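Tutorial, part two.
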Amino acid sequence: MDFRKLIVLVMLAACLPATADIRIVTRAVETSTAYMNMPTTDSSRLLFKSCDDCEIFEVRLTPATLFILRGEQLPFAEFRKQFNSLRQSKDDYALVTFDTETNAVSSVRVGE
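Running the prediction step on this input gives:
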């Protein structure tokens, strides 16, 4: 009998609404290479937007930022060199992922 009561209590507890607020701590923004301004160093600010009329994001690159071009992880200097040699257009996919509290970029992905 105690086992049945325990099961009922667990099921009732699972049905209770959650009271914690949901916070978004990481944001990923889809953009294109045409809307990205690649900085000169890996500790600079990256400026980008997701469309012609959209807001401009200003985020921080850090030494921990991952730079991925066509599925290959590259050091910043090589990534920047190859990024600047791309034909930048609105059709070239890019994804920037960053922390919403610190604006620190965790990854920049291009051409995947």
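The mean pLDDT is 87. In part three we will examine how such features are distributed along the chain.
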